[in-house]
Write a structure and sequence with these properties.
Layout: H1 2-34, H2 65-76, E1 86-88, E2 92-96, E3 104-108, E4 136-141, H3 147-151, E5 155-156, E6 164-165, H4 166-183, E7 187-190, H5 203-209, H6 218-246, E8 250-254, E9 275-279, H7 285-288, H8 291-303, H9 305-324, E10 339-342, E11 345-347, H10 351-355, E12 360-365, H11 371-378, E13 386-388, E14 391-393, H12 396-411
Parallel strand pairs: 4-7, 4-8, 8-12, 9-11
Antiparallel strand pairs: 1-2, 2-3, 5-6, 9-12, 10-11, 13-14
This protein binds zinc ion (ZN).
């Protein structure tokens, strides 16, 4: 009896437990079944969604045909592949939308070239005659720090030296830059202020949805899932912050460049060191075929983003060259992903400079694994100046922030 009682006392909780487990397994299978598999889509960019083309309605009759085609052909696309998705008519251009119910969007041109520059029908407003005091600037410290720096492979260490970590350098630079710009009266927001990702989903979530490629091993498959967290979802969430919450006039994306350093156990230093600045443009053939990217491209043209991005980028190049004497980087002259705008200024279509709706300046100074920058980083963040390779210099993050501040002071003059 005792034994019979003990059995029945155990039996009920066991039954509940098994039932609960079955329920959990079943509902998680159901949840998974709801999510479509993730793969490179011919019609949308990774994690991209169908755009609302009616958001372009306020731009009807605002841009001349000449101006639209000039920007489309010289800054935003390479070659003639745009003609697969855009058809030019006398008084309008029709654009394929990818929407079965309304397959084209017609954008009507202004009757003749408007004499005033384009202005966006959105949250930001830029003008070189505005004072820094009237501007809201968002700073985007590129990448992440902590464990993410190693996952992203934006981290290297030589022996017992100070590790060189892009996401930590960009955050420190952003903090100095915020202080310096605030001293000039600007309103400044940091898009990231710690090491952590703002992605909601884990690598495991994406691992389940991401189809394995042919010949791909488990490690490579996992790396692609991680990239969806720290790159794709992270930047999409930063874009939501920029476009809906912060709504700045300008975003500065801070990066430090690097060349391949080979074996992570034995990273190689190089004598090469250089500088370039990117604006949004140069959409590739496959990017133009994505409905969401095509929409974003048209919105950039209509907002008049390029003229501000070019002017500010040129001021950045001048300022960095005066202080750092860095040579300018050149992409290959036949590059299919970069367009030369002017000395050191290039157009490229990156997730951040496409998704952030206001003008974006994407900075790529310093080669982190050059001998000079490596030695500079080893001194850490110091006040005043120290002798670095025969020149007295501020700490690298303060030098970077100073160059950006002076460029903006030079560009914005009321
Ligand atoms: Zn970077």
């Amino acid at each position: 009896m005792t034994s019979h009682l003990r059995k029945s006392r155990l039996f009920l909780p066991l039954l509940i437990l098994v039932g609960l487990l079955l329920f959990l397994v079943f509902s998680s299978l159901q949840n998974q079944a709801k999510l479509p598999p993730l793969k490179k889509h011919p019609s949308y960019s990774m994690l991209g969604t169908p755009p609302d083309w009616s958001l372009l309605d306020p731009y009807q009759h605002r841009i001349s045909k000449r101006q639209f085609l000039f920007l489309l052909q010289n800054i935003y696309t390479i070659g003639n592949d745009w003609e697969k998705h855009f058809t030019v008519h006398e008084d309008h251009i029709s654009i394929l939308t990818g929407n079965a119910e309304a397959p084209t969007y017609c954008l009507y041109f202004a009757p003749k070239s408007p004499s005033q520059p384009l202005s966006p029908a959105t949250f930001w407003e830029l003008n070189p005659k505005r004072s820094l005091r009237d501007l809201h600037i968002a700073i985007d410290p590129g990448h992440l720090g902590g464990k993410w720096a190693q996952i992203e492979e934006r981290w290297f260490q030589i022996g017992n030296g100070t590790p060189v970590e892009e996401g930590t350098l960009t955050l420190q630079t952003a903090q100095h830059l915020k202080t310096m710009l605030e001293q000039k009266g600007a309103t400044v927001s940091l898009i990231r202020s710690n090491d952590e990702t703002i992605a909601q989903n884990s690598a495991n979530h994406y691992l389940k949805r991401l189809q394995k490629r042919e010949g791909e091993n488990a490690e490579q498959h996992r790396r692609r899932a991680e990239k969806l967290v720290y790159r794709t979802e992270e930047i999409r969430n930063r874009a939501a912050l920029v476009n809906h919450d912060i709504q700045p006039d300008l975003v500065l994306c801070l990066h430090y460049n690097a060349l391949a350093w080979g074996d992570p156990e034995k990273p190689q230093l190089t004598d090469t060191n250089h500088l370039h600045v990117l604006i949004n443009g140069a959409y590739t053939t496959s990017e133009l075929a994505h409905h969401d990217e095509r929409f974003e491209l048209v919105r950039k043209i209509l907002g008049g983003n390029a003229q501000h991005e070019i002017g500010i980028s040129q001021a950045m190049i001048k300022s960095f060259q005066e202080t750092t004497q860095l040579p300018l980087y050149e992409y290959a002259s036949d590059s299919r992903r970069a367009i030369r705008i002017s000395d050191g200024v290039w157009a490229r279509n990156l997730l951040a400079n496409r998704l952030y709706q206001c003008p974006v300046i994407f900075l790529e100074p310093y080669i982190m694994n050059s001998h000079e920058v490596y030695d500079h980083v080893q001194y850490g963040d110091y006040e005043g100046q120290k002798m670095i390779h025969h020149r007295m210099r501020a700490s690298i993050t303060r030098e970077y922030a100073g160059c950006v501040t002076r460029a903006l002071e030079q560009y914005f003059q009321p």
